[in-house]
Sequence to fold (73 residues):
Amino acid sequence: MAVPKKKTSVSRKGLRRAGQHHKLYANKNVVPCGTTGEWNLKGCISPSGYWKGQKVFETRADREEETEETTEE
Fold:
């Protein structure tokens, strides 16, 4: 069995593990939403709740706007 001759330092260990972080976020399928212009993953619902130009679900911000409009009137 292979045994390391010297202890691996914390910084070396961190440098080795840092490469994994970049692999996770190296997604090339990020596109702007056609409706809102927000960046999101291709094939996913945008953070504002749109899917292929149609509103799929209400977000918390939408609900807050509705409550503000009703209180003003």
